[in-house]
Amino acid sequence: MVLSEKKKKTGRIAAIFSFGQIADITAYQSFILLIFTFYYSVVGIQIELITLGFIIWSIWNMINDPILGYFSDRTHTKWGRRRPWIMIAFIPLAVIMIFLFTPPFPIGTTNPQFGNFVYFLIIIIIFEFFYTMYSLNVTSMFPEVFLTEKERTQGNNIRAVYTIIGLIVAFLLPGLIIPDFTDPAYFTEFQIFGVIACVVVIIAVIILLKFGPKEREEFQKDSENALSLIKSIVYCLKSKSFRWYIIAELCNWFVYGMLPMIVPLYAKFVLGAIGFETSLLLGLTFISAALFMTVLWKPLVRKWGNKKSWIMSMSIWAASLVPLMFIEDYISGLIVFFLIGIGLSGSLYIIDLVVADIVDEDEVATGLRREAGYYGVNALILRFSNVLVIFAIGSVLSTVGWAVFEPSLVTEGVKFGLRALMFIFPVIALIIAILAMTRYPLHGERLKNVQEKLKEIHEQKKARI
At a CB cut-off of 8 Å and minimum separation 6, what does 86 contact? Predict the structure, then answer.
C-alpha cells in the first residue's frame, strides 16, 4: 500500500514536471525542422552563408552551455538552484520563436543576402542562449527530483509521453499551417506557427513553475562547494563513463540534427511530399517511438540495463535507415519512417537514464551533485554535432550543384546527395556510437555499487538539514 501511494505520488510529480518537456521539445525541434529550410529555400540565403552562420552558432554554443551550467550549479536562492534560471529564460525563449521567422529584408528585395544573413546569425545565437538557460536547468532537475532507479524509470515513461506531445506541435502542426516548407509564398505561415509555438512554450512553463516539484533541500548546500568552471570540465572529462558515453551521444545528436533538418528537402524532391505530408513522415516516426518506448524499451531496460539496450536500439535504428537510400515514393516513405521510430525511441528513452547514472557516480566520487555542470559540458561537446551536420549538408549540396536553392534544377545528383544525407552519414555516426558504448563501464556490479554508496551519502546530507 505504501509503495502504491509512493508510485502515485511519483507519477503526479512526473506529470507536472513533464510540461517542461513540452516547451523544450516544441522550441528546439521546430527550430531544427524549420530554420535551415526557411532561410535556405524561403528567404534565399546561399548555402555557404548558412553553413558559416551555423558554424559560428555552434562555436558560441560550446562556450555558452558550460558557462550557464557552471553558474547554475553555484546558484543558491530561496527558490533553489534551477528554478530562477527557468523563470528568467522562458519568456524571452517564447518570444524569440516569433522573431526566428521575421527577417528584416522582404523576399525579392535587391540583394537582401547579407542583411538577412546577419539577422539569421544574431537571432539563432539569442535563441540558443535562452533555450540553453531554460533546457539545461529543467534537464538538471530530473536526476535530482527522481533519485532512485524506479523513480527515474517511472518518471522517464511519463516524460516520454509529454515528449511526443511536444513533437506533435514541433513536427505535425507546421505541416497543417505551412502548405509547402520550401515555397516563399508561405512566408507568413511560418510566422503564424512562430506565434503558436510562443504560446505553447509560455503555457507549458507556467504550469511547470506553478505546480511542478520543488528542488530537494538536502542538495542546496552543494552550491557552496561547486567546482570552478575549468575544474568542472576537467572532472567531467576525467570520468571514463562520461568519455565513452559522450562519443555515443555526439553521434546520436548528429543523427537527431541531420534527419529533421534535411527531411523537408528529401520529402519533396525524392518522395514528392509537401506540407502536411512531410510533417506526417516525422509524426509517424514519433508515434512509433511513443509506442515502442512502452512495449519494447521499458521492459528491455529493466532486463538488460541501459548499456545493452542502447546498443540494441542504435543497431535497429541504423538498419531502419537503409531503405532511405533507395525508396522513391511517399507510401514507402511512410512505412520506413514508422520503422525508424523503433530504434530512435530506444535512444530517446535511455540517454537521460545514462546521464543520471554518470551524475550519481560523480556524486559518489566528489560528494556533490553537479547535474548542470555535467549537462553543460555534455552540451559543449554535443553542440559540435551541429557543426558536423551543417558542414555535411553544405558540402554535399555545394558538390551536387545546389549551393543556391533552385527547385527547378533537381538533378539525379541532387537526389543522391539528399539520400546520402539521410542514410550514409547517419549510419556511419551510429556505427561509431555503437562501438563507443561497447566500452562504457558503468553497468552491472559497478553500477550497483554506486547506487548503494549513494544511498549512504544522501542519508548523510539529509541529516545535516
Answer: 20, 134, 137, 138, 205, 208, 209
Using a 10 angstrom Cβ sphere, with 0-12 exposed, 13-18 middle and 19 or more buried, the burial of residue 187 is middle
Q: What is the pLDDT of residue 219?
A: 54
Predicted confidence (pLDDT) per residue in 82-140, tens digit: 889 999 999 999 999 999 999 988 665 555 788 899 999 999 999 999 999 999 888 87
When pLDDT is averaged across residues 349-364 and rounded to a whole number, the result is 87
Rounded CA-CA distance 260/133 in Å is 23
Q: Which amino acid is at 462?
A: K
Query: What are the structural domain ranges in the chain?
Result: 15-210+229-463
Lookup result for grid cell 540583394: 111
Q: CB count, 10 Å around CB of 324?
A: 25
Cell of residue 245, nine digits = 558515453
For the chain, first and last CA: distance in Å? 29
pLDDT at 220 over 80: no
Span 227-253, mean pLDDT?
85
**Yes or no: is domain 15-210+229-463 CATH 3.40.50.620?**
no
Q: Dmax of the chain from CA atoms? A: 72
The 3-state secondary structure of 123-180, one letter per residue = HHHHHHHHHHHHHHHHHHHHHHHCCCHHHHHHHHHHHHHHHHHHHHHHHHHHHHHCCC
Q: What is the pLDDT of residues 4-29, one digit of tens each?
A: 666 777 778 888 888 988 999 999 99
Phi/psi region, residue 425 (left: phi>0; alpha: psi -120 to 50; beta: rest), is: alpha
Query: Based on C-alpha coordinates, what's the Rg of the chain?
Result: 22
Taking residue 108's Cβ as centre, other Cβ atoms within 10 Å add up to 8
* Short-list 374, 364, 356, 71, CA closest to 233: 374
Residue 187 makes CB contacts below 8 A (sequence gap 6+) with 42, 107
String of b and e for 304-313 (b: at least 16 CB within 10 Å)? ebbbbbbbbb
Chain centroid offset of residue 266 CA: 21
